[in-house]
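dumping this here before i forget
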Amino acid sequence: MKLKIFTLFFLSSLAVLSLSCRKAELLQPEPVKIIQLSISGTTSVELEYLYKDSIIATPPAGGISLKTLLAIKDQNAVLKIRKKGTSEILLTRTIMATPFDQNISLFYDGTKIYNNAISLRLKGYALSGELEFLLDGTVFSSGNGAIDKLSSVLIDKGTTREITVRKKGETAILLTKTIESATAQQNIGFFFDGIKIVDNVKVDPPVNPANMMLTAKFETTFPNQFKNVDVDLVFYTRLKTASNTTAGTKVTPELRFTLPNNGSFNSIELPPLPGANYIYSFDIVEKGTNTEPYTSGTPLVLNGYTLKPNEGRITAAFAENGINFEAGKSKLFVIADARTAVTTPTRSIYVSGGRLTDLSQYFQ
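structure:
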C-alpha cells in the first residue's frame, strides 16, 4: 500500500514539474512593444530615416516634424539617418522599448548633425563698409548700415561655437564672441566706425528720471584741419524753429560734455529743456577751452570766409535730427561736425554738431 502511495506521489510531482517547464518555455519569447518616436529640428537637405534597414520616412528639407510608431522586439532596435539617395549614415540612434513617448532633436547644416540650436540676433550699425559674420570661420551673414538679423546657430549641448566679425574683403578679425549652448536666445550688439568695432556700449537710464541720458562719440568730417584732441560739447538751448544763423542761449551754469579723441563713448545726463518747442544745440571746442579744435584752411574754411564761434548755431541737417529731450530716456549718438556758411552780415563759417546718427535702438 505504501509503495502505491509513493508511486502515485512521484508521478504527480513529475507531471506538475513537466507542466511548469512547458509554461516557462511558453513565456520565454519577448513580446513586441510599440513606442511613439517624435523627431524635430531642421535640415538643409532631404534626409532618409531607416528602421530595420527599411526607409520609414523621407520628409522635405526645412523644418523637421516627424512622428511615427515603431515595433520594438528587443532592446537593440536602431534608427539610422542618411542623406537622401546616399549610403553614408549620418546618425545612428538606439531605440529602447520604454518609455512609450521618445523624442529626438537633430539639426543638420549639410555637413554635420547637431542636437541643439540657439537663436542669435545680430543688431548694430556699420558707419561705413560692409561687415561679414563668420561661424567657426565660415561666413553665415553680412550687412552694412543698420543691421538687425536673426539667425539659427546649430550647436551640440555642452559645447561652444565661435562668432567672428570682419570687414568684407579683409582678413583682420574685428570682434570675437563665444556662443554657449545653454542659452536659447543670444544677442550681439555692436557699432562699427569703419575701423574698429565697439560691442560693450551700455545705454543705461538716467539716475534722475527727470533727465535724459546721452551717450555719444565724436567723429570729425574735417580730418585735415582737426587737431586730434579731446573735445568738449558746450550746450545751448534754442527753439526748434529758430534760424540756423541765430545764436542759441548758453546753458547756465555751463554744461560741458567731454568726448575723447580716441573715438570711445562717454555719457552725460541732460536736464529738462525750457519747454516742448526747444532742443539742445552745442559748440564743439577743444577740451577745457572755448577755442575751436581746428586749424584754418580749405575745405573747412572757404576763401573770403572767416571761422567764427558757433554760439549754439545749428545747421539744417542738425535741425532735422536735433537732440529732442525725452525725460527718463537714453539716447546713443555718433556726433559728426559740420559747417554752416553765411554771407550776411559778413561771410562767416560756423562749425557745429551738424550730423547725428542715432544708434539707440541697437543697444536697447
